[in-house]
Amino acid sequence: MRDSGIPGIVYFFAGVVFFAAVMAALFISEKTRQDDTAQEEVQVPATLPPSQQEAGAEAPVTIPSREDLRAMGLGPLPPIGMPADNPQSEAKAELGKLLFFDNRMSGDGLVSCATCHAPGLGWGDGNALSLGYPGTMHWRNSQTIINSAYYTQLFWAGESKSLEVQAKSAMTGNLAGNLDPAMAEERLRQIPGYVQIFKEVFGTDAPGFGDALRAIASFEATIISSNVPFDRYMDGDDAALSEEAVQGLGLFTGKAGCIECHSGPLLSDQGFHNTGVPPQPEFESNPLRQISLRYQHRARGVPESVYREADRDLGLYYTTKLDSDKGKFRTPSLREVGQTGPYMHNGVFKTLAEVVEFYDRGGGDDPSKDALLRPLGLTQQEIGNLVEFLRALTGDQIIIEAPTLPEYEVLP
Ligand code: HEC
Ligand code: HEC
After folding, report:
1. CA 46 to CA 65: how far, in whole Å?
2. How confident is the model over 349-407, as pLDDT tens digits?
3. How far does residue 258's CA lie from ligand 1's centre (Å)?
4. Going from the N-terminus, what domains does the chain have, and what CATH number goes with each?
5. Ligand 2 centroid vs 332 CA: distance in angstroms?
6. Is 127 exposed, middle or buried (0-12, 13-18, 19+ CB in 10 A)?
7. β-bridge partners, 133
8. Left (φ > 0), alpha (ψ -120 to 50) or beta: where does 179 sit?
9. Which ligand is located closest to the Cα atom of residue 141?
10. Strands 329-330 and 272-273
């Protein structure tokens, strides 16, 4: 019935206009309220214990002062302390560089350290899981060697205690260099260029295997972050970090609690934690990678009953055999993460955003994961800000051309 004379459509439009006006008013008042809060100086202690932080709260992020950041242990890397039996020298590092790039330092003469630690790929190999020595496929991600001289324990689960010891595993281990030490020495001794340099550096008549390892460690100790935006910021250059990165820094040290484990100049506590990293499909579907995991742990004396039952990398547990250490890995440094993806011991995350989203969910679903991990309630903007901060921990690319190597000669 159209008895009123006013078409229904008019009522409808009047309703829409009224509704829109009410919503706009509400929106404006809400906006004003938010702006007010933003102007308030909310004084939250820089590292509030995670339990006291309100997940999901849209509170403005407190940016710690440089003094606070230094008190938290953040700042530039200190000078490297080399072991007493391997004092640093330029000539030794130069020799180490030759050896690092020399394919003859592997069993089949085709693989060098630089094959899996390539300068152009952040000194890793760019793959989720590492290549492995020809005929094998590694079950872990190839780590960067940038800043590795700062670690007191090397490898994803800290299995090696020094760069020198690590270099021995790398050169002789069946999954990496697969070279017998005696063979290494005989090869070096038949390269007059090396005989000469070893003599100059170590005073020996014939190159020795242990000295080769020392030289490699000495070279690695020269591959260090430089010109890192966050370091410049700490030096007083406000412009070194974008506004997003500064917000990310506030989250890193506050609401997101990253600094609980990624602490100190290296952004690693060098401790071991289980974050519940999800399985890597490439490992799950590749027998060669599974063989490598089992082989490696068998070779390290892990009981057969243990390594044959494992369907994943148990990390620190293989060393300690303590149930409570299952799934624990060494906290990696966050320096240079902008050039070292994919991430985690099994390379399961391709991007930094994926890593931050993983932490936002409270880590993986391993029931025995670290108690420090809990859902963070980050907004998309906050996730982006954290990623920006992580990028600001990355310095200049360290590009070193493969050097010209001295050649074999026949015996006189
Ligand atoms: C076939 C690939 C491959 C080759 C060749 C290789 N590595 Fe590695 N490297 C890896 C992988 C994979 C890891 C991590 C292994 C683990 O955690 O068990 C690693 C780890 C390291 C680390 C530990 C870094 C850290 O943060 O703890 C250093 C240092 C290193 N390699 C140096 C070397 C040196 C020196 C050589 C040559 C003598 C070498 N690597 C040869 C794949 C390789
Ligand atoms: C409970 C300690 C802990 C906390 C808290 C923590 N991490 Fe980690 N982080 C680790 C450990 C351990 C690994 C290595 C895990 C693995 O490979 O299984 C890691 C790995 C990473 C990596 C990968 C690095 C690489 O080279 O592959 C990034 C990036 C990272 N964390 C960023 C963060 C950020 C950002 C936060 C805060 C949101 C955070 N972490 C909080 C312990 C922690």
Report:
1. 9
2. 999 999 999 999 999 999 999 999 999 999 999 999 999 999 999 999 999 999 999 99
3. 26
4. 44-73+231-276+327-406 (1.10.760.10), 90-220 (1.10.760.10), 280-318 (no CATH)
5. 7
6. middle
7. none
8. beta
9. 1
10. antiparallel
**Integer Cα distance of 174 and 316 in angstroms:** 21
Q: Which residues contact 272 (CB under 8 A, 6 or more apart)?
A: 157, 158, 315, 316, 325, 328, 329, 330, 331
CA angle, 283 as apex, 278 and 289 as ends, to 5°? 145
Look up residue 115 and give its two tokens.
Answer: 């094959």
pLDDT of amino acid 215: 98
Q: Report CA-CA distances (Å) from 255 to 49, 63, 315, 411.
A: 9, 11, 28, 67
pLDDT digits (tens, 9 = 90+) for 162-182: 999 999 999 999 999 999 999
Tokens 């690693």: give the residue: 268
* Distance, CA of 117 to CA of 385 (rounded, Å): 29
| Rounded CA separation 26/12 (Å) | 21
Distance 282 CA to ligand 2 centre (A): 21
User: What ligand has the least distance to the C-alpha of 108?
Assistant: 1
Q: Whose CA is nearest to atom 9 of ligand 2?
A: 331
